[in-house]
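User: tokens in, sequence out, please.
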């Protein structure tokens, strides 16, 4: 080739003819990380709960039933509020979609499967049908409302296809679950009407969606006033410890399952917060609970970091994020979390495609033609290695490689119309004797190029550009050598001699169509001659 740099620069211009050439640039994802699909898992923090009004409200939809006062009954659904970090992160990445199950569209680029109150064991139940959990009161109460079985197949599919997965979970294991179970157990044991009433009101507040830390503060205040706080703490604290121990066992299984579903996704894990830290300086129950949770948070987050390292994930700490009175992040706090996640994302390598397996026979060829700007992907980080290449595409590549010289006259081919993307390229190639039309006066630019046609065009271009064309392989070693058309015999001997074309296991397959993978490998070898 006369000037390799010149050729590669020229080929960059060719890539602008995306749809026409069938060699398209990576889809514009709006971000440098190649993230086109994002799936979020999590609890109330994942759902974006806070006190910013509707922006921070848990997503709800009508059940179709009416309340006693005539208003619509509402049920919480999977999703994230506008205030949440999931929504904010999706916007930062330029992804479309509402992120809520009630407004899912097929072309949504991100979906949130977060739900207030979920424990790690609930999330594992949702994403792994083989996991069998012993039903308990908490799972019936919280998980039953998610209708997760209705969406389980969609959730698993989203996680399998996502380029990015985020997860925040754990606090409900050692706070909300133990709290609910303590309310029920203590109320059953209580002989005091005031104690029973305080516990029942707390349980109802949780059912109505009031944040667990706020409910915890209210109930401990009430129980302390009637000297029932010690009884609550004696039941609650052991349940907290048991919930924490279960979380340590379940969390790694979630990450292992995510990696099983999606080995290539970028996964970012958010650490566990202390939901009651600094909630009260005077409430003895809250102070004791906060200290207990502090004892869980540090080692728990170290375990999450270990899982992140083991399964190739990233970790972000959210302990110091600004929170509101419900002990959920403020909108500004959620912005901090979104920014932390962005900082952990890795820019996509344009030469790495989802459908090009490591170690495949064409991997190095694809990497070469991508890095040199000769070929690009077909969108969504796909290369489509098995897709065919057209005759017009090869003509355009050779024409661009030569710097798109002026075309002096038409080749008179019936199907090469003036103004078509391949018009000048085909006329130049035919006029320069690099390619020829069919006997019926057509070129058939949109027809897949055969392996022998590709060899002939490259052979003629090699001679045109002054490269060595003396190599001659013995084609008699291939069982189908007799199928090579007369016009292509010399070119096939040359191409095989230079290892531009080799057997496929079925022979040379001279009349088989050339795939994008084959073209990538051939172009790499041709450029390195």
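Assistant: Sequence out:
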């Amino acid at each position: 080739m006369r000037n390799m740099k010149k050729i590669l620069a020229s080929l960059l211009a060719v890539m602008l003819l995306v749809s026409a050439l069938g060699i398209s640039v990576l889809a514009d994802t709006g971000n440098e990380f190649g993230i086109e699909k994002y799936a979020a898992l999590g609890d109330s923090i994942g759902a974006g709960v806070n006190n910013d009004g509707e922006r921070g409200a848990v997503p709800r939809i009508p059940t179709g039933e009416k309340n006693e006062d005539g208003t619509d009954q509402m049920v919480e659904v999977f999703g994230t509020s506008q205030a949440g970090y999931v929504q904010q992160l999706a916007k930062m990445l330029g992804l479309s979609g509402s992120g809520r199950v009630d407004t899912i569209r097929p072309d949504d680029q991100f979906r949130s499967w977060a739900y207030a109150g979920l424990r790690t064991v609930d999330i594992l139940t949702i994403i792994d049908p083989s996991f069998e959990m012993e039903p308990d009161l908490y799972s019936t109460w919280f998980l039953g409302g998610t209708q997760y079985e209705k969406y389980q197949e969609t959730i698993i599919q989203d996680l399998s296809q996502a380029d990015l997965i985020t997860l925040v979970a754990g606090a409900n294991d050692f706070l909300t679950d133990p709290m609910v179970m303590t309310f029920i157990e203590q109320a059953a044991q209580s002989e005091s009407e005031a104690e029973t009433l305080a516990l029942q009101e707390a349980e109802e507040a949780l059912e109505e969606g009031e944040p667990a830390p706020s409910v915890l503060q209210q109930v401990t205040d009430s129980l302390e006033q009637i000297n029932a706080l010690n009884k609550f703490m004696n039941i609650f604290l052991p349940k907290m410890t048991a919930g924490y121990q279960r979380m340590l066992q379940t969390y790694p299984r979630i990450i292992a399952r995510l990696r099983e579903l999606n080995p290539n996704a970028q996964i970012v894990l958010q650490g566990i917060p202390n939901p009651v830290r600094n909630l009260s300086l005077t409430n003895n129950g809250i102070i004791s609970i906060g200290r207990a949770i502090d004892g869980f948070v540090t080692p728990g987050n170290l375990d999450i970091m270990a899982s992140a390292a083991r399964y190739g994930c990233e970790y972000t700490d959210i302990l110091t994020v600004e929170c509101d009175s419900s002990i959920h992040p403020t909108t500004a706090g959620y912005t901090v979390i979104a920014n932390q996640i962005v900082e952990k994302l890795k820019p996509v390598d344009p030469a790495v495609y989802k459908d090009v397996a490591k170690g495949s026979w064409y991997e190095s060829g694809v990497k070469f033609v991508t890095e040199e700007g000769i070929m690009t992907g077909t969108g969504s980080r796909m290369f489509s290695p098995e897709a065919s290449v057209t005759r017009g595409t090869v003509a355009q590549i050779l024409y661009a490689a030569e710097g798109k010289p002026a075309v002096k006259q038409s080749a008179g081919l019936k199907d090469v119309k003036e103004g078509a993307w391949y018009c000048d390229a085909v006329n130049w190639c035919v006029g320069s004797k690099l390619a020829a039309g069919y006997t019926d006066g057509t070129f058939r630019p949109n027809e897949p190029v055969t392996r022998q046609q590709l060899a002939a065009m490259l052979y003629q271009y090699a001679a045109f550009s002054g490269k060595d064309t003396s190599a001659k392989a013995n084609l008699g070693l291939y069982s189908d050598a007799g199928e090579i058309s007369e016009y292509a015999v010399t070119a096939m001997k040359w191409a095989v001699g230079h290892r531009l074309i080799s057997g496929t296991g079925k022979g040379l397959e001279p009349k088989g169509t050339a795939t994008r993978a084959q073209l990538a490998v051939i172009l790499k070898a041709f450029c390195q001659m």
